[in-house]
Amino acid sequence: MHPAIETTALTKRYGVRTIVRDFTFAVHPGEVYALVGPNGAGKTTVIRLVSGLAFPTSGVVRMLGHDPHETPAVRRRLGAVVEAPAAFYPYLSGRSNLRLHANLAGGVAPGRVDEVLEQVELGDAADRKVGVYSLGMRQRLGVAAALLTRPEVLILDEPASGMDPLSLHLVHGVLRDAAASGTAVLLSTHHLDEVVAYCSHVGIMEEGVLIDEVDLRDRGARVRVQVDDIERAHRALSAEPWASDVSFRGRDLVFALHEGADLDRVAATLATAGVALRALGDDSFDLRSYYRERVEAERARRTSVDERPGGVA
Known about the structure:
- With 313 residues, this protein is of the alpha/beta class.
- The protein has two domains: 5-215, P-loop containing nucleotide triphosphate hydrolases (Rossmann fold), CATH 3.40.50; 222-284, Alpha-Beta Plaits (2-Layer Sandwich), CATH 3.30.70.100.
- Helix content is 33%, strand content 27%.
- It contains nine helices and 13 strands.
């Protein structure tokens, strides 16, 4: 299956400042991909580049196989809310605003406006002026506008900003449903605790760089170990056919244990390799902790590089 969104070495500079550097990733139909990172990490810039709202300094971006700048017509297959909340006429009702969006987009089926209003649970408020909507309601109206054309690609910048917990749960369900219908969903968010419930992939950004990607669909049957020699343990476990995705998690190792394998193999393999096992157990994936560890490790790595003569890694 070809990616719906794909970038290669995407870079954006404003003057001498690099905002996004060598950003390479892909989002396939049916996936919900969340960009997470601290403020200023470059999440919104990536979204603007991918959606065709900003030109890259270098690198390649493809949406449904096309460059959105060279083939702007591809953006008709995109639904987006960037730098939310979306702009609406405050003196018009929610329904009237969506009808304007539908007329501008063209090809929107009769009844679709009412359908998306019900999806985001704004049916009862549809005929109120948007000027009296709360921030969360305007955010939901923005999501409804992005869904009007049944887009193949849905891009949302901080869609949950200003939402109450019930609205958050509602929007998460809408995004899951969109992905289930084959839409590729890309969003940025600060809501790490909820991401695991509705996203399939997470990209962690730090100072314009994609420092890690997590496939949330493959988080079962994982083991976490503490050892006295983490490098030797990594080599030993990586060589075993019953262990995969052996990776560093702070001072620990985490890996997937294949079906049918048991924990006794882990202890025996490490003992044979001359590694002392200090702790062994299931790995309960905590995205917030994992995110913090990866960002802190990246900052420590950069500090170490900067302190070397010439700052060369």
